[in-house]
Amino acid sequence: MDTLLDVSNLRIRYGGAAREAVRGVSFTLGRERLGIVGESGSGKSTVGRALLKLLPGATITADRLRFEDVDLTLLSEREMLKIRGRRMSMILQDPKFSLNPIRRVGDQVSETYLRHFRCSRREARERALAMLEAVKIRDPERVYRQYPHEVSGGMGQRIMIAMMLLADPDLVIADEPTSALDVTVRLQVLDILDNLVRNRGIGLIMISHDLNLVRNFCDRVLIMYAGQVVETLKAGDLERAEHPYTRGLLAAQPRIGGPRAPLSVLDRKPEWLEENA
């Protein structure tokens, strides 16, 4: 399997913070679906944003941070502009906050193509319409002319996916892309992402709180706690996790048809904080 991303000993510290927000994170990514799960504040989104160098004011260091043939640690901001959106994209969590409320949807989607390719506005518009249709938006011409407040949450998320995929990137980071969606729309969005991995051969990082989602959707899973990876395993082996933190997360999930006793409460151990210090 081709290695798209190689991360070794990634460390991130926000200015003035007493301790690092991310400590010693290492993983590789091929043309597969990699899930990153953990509690809020565990560092999942921070890792995703660090890969795109979207953390102003933070200090990012790594023994190795390579994307295909590029050493990301050596790139200037000007050079990163050629990577972001074109070769690496990030689908953010909530379209209500990610889309510009005073610009039409279509102008925001087509801007991606205009930014990275030499083309006319007409060509960019045609590409954007084709991508809106590809993410299963009915009547893309009408949606193209709408403003973000005129579309539903599910449609807004599909618009975000279309925007991030228009330049045909090799790596997509999806940060809770289905958290604000109902079950039916969630399945549609996951189906779109799954087809991209299978048919286009991209690498996908799925950042989520939802253990059931990554268990059924991803190929491998990283479990993060307090800024570090405590366990890495195949998604199908999640029930056989060994780290007590992972087992605690699994035990805290309600199950249909399960016992009606109170759910387990995660018992955090101080020594977990020092495992990768």
Task: Give an overview in words.
The protein is α/β, with parallel strands linked by helices and 277 residues long. The chain has a domain of 189 residues: Rossmann fold (3-Layer(aba) Sandwich). It contains 10 helices and 11 strands. Strands 7-8-9-3-10-11 form a 6-stranded mixed β-sheet, with helices on both faces.
**CATH fold-type name of the domain at 5-87 and 169-274:** Rossmann fold
State the name of the first-level CATH class of the domain at 5-87 and 169-274. Alpha Beta
Regions with pLDDT < 50 over 5+ consecutive residues? none
Please state roughly what percent of the residues sit in beta strands, choosing from under 5%, 5-15%, 15-25%, 25-35%, 35-45% or over 45%.
15-25%
Cα distance spanning the termini:
31 Å
Radius of gyration: 19 Å
Number of helical runs? Answer: 10
Q: How would you state the average pLDDT, rounded?
A: 88
What about the largest sheet? 6 strands, mixed
SSE topology sketch:
Blueprint: E1 5-14, E2 22-29, E3 33-37, H1 44-51, E4 58-61, E5 64-67, E6 70-71, H2 77-83, E7 88-91, H3 95-98, H4 105-116, H5 121-134, H6 140-144, H7 153-165, E8 171-175, H8 183-200, E9 203-208, H9 211-217, E10 220-225, E11 228-234, H10 244-251
Parallel strand pairs: 3-9, 3-10, 7-8, 8-9
Antiparallel strand pairs: 1-2, 1-4, 1-5, 5-6, 10-11
Helix pairs in contact: 4-5, 4-7, 5-7
